[in-house]
Amino acid sequence: MKGERSEELSMDNPASNIGAVTSRQAWQFAMVPVEIKGDELLFLSTAQFAPRAMRFVRYVLRMRPCVGLVSEITLRDRLIQEFGSDGFALGMRPSVARRKPNKISDNGSSRI
């Protein structure tokens, strides 16, 4: 994929310090910005979501995209770490985007 780097991107630089995208955009496009170098935005995404994130970076942010591919679980964890859990990744598989639900005790009463 064009714009993809095989070398490992730094996981030390918090995305919130970069300010390239909002929380909503990060969750919507399933991407975590890592670093800005000149006109190039280095970010993490998955193979499935990378093309969409690259179009967003190229046409909306008007930067050259450079993506580091990670697993969906790693991306979800990094999105939660950097941007909070308010988005729960649109389009991600439910088993990936959702945390384990809290168990709700059922006392037998029905609620409408």
Query: Shape from CA axes?
Result: globular
CATH architecture of the domain at 22-90: 2-Layer Sandwich
Radius of gyration: 16 Å
> What's the number of helices?
5
Uncertain regions spanning at least 5 consecutive residues? 4-11
Q: Ends: how far apart?
A: 50 Å
Task: Give a structural overview.
With 112 residues, this protein is an alpha+beta fold. The protein has a domain at 22-90: GMP Synthetase, Chain A, domain 3 (2-Layer Sandwich). It has 5 helices and 3 strands; from the N terminus they run ααββαβαα. It has helices spanning 15-18, 23-28, 50-59, 72-83, 94-97; strands spanning 32-37, 40-45, 64-69. A 3-stranded mixed beta sheet has the order 1-2-3. Helix 3 (50-59) links the parallel strand 2 (40-45) and strand 3 (64-69). The longest helix has 12 residues, at 72-83. The N and C termini lie far apart (50 Å). Residues 4-11 have low confidence and may be disordered.
Q: What is the topology?
A:
Layout: H1 15-18, H2 23-28, E1 32-37, E2 40-45, H3 50-59, E3 64-69, H4 72-83, H5 94-97
Parallel strand pairs: 2-3
Antiparallel strand pairs: 1-2
In short:
It is built from five helices and three strands. The protein has 112 residues and is of the alpha+beta class.
Features:
112 residues, alpha+beta, GMP Synthetase, Chain A, domain 3
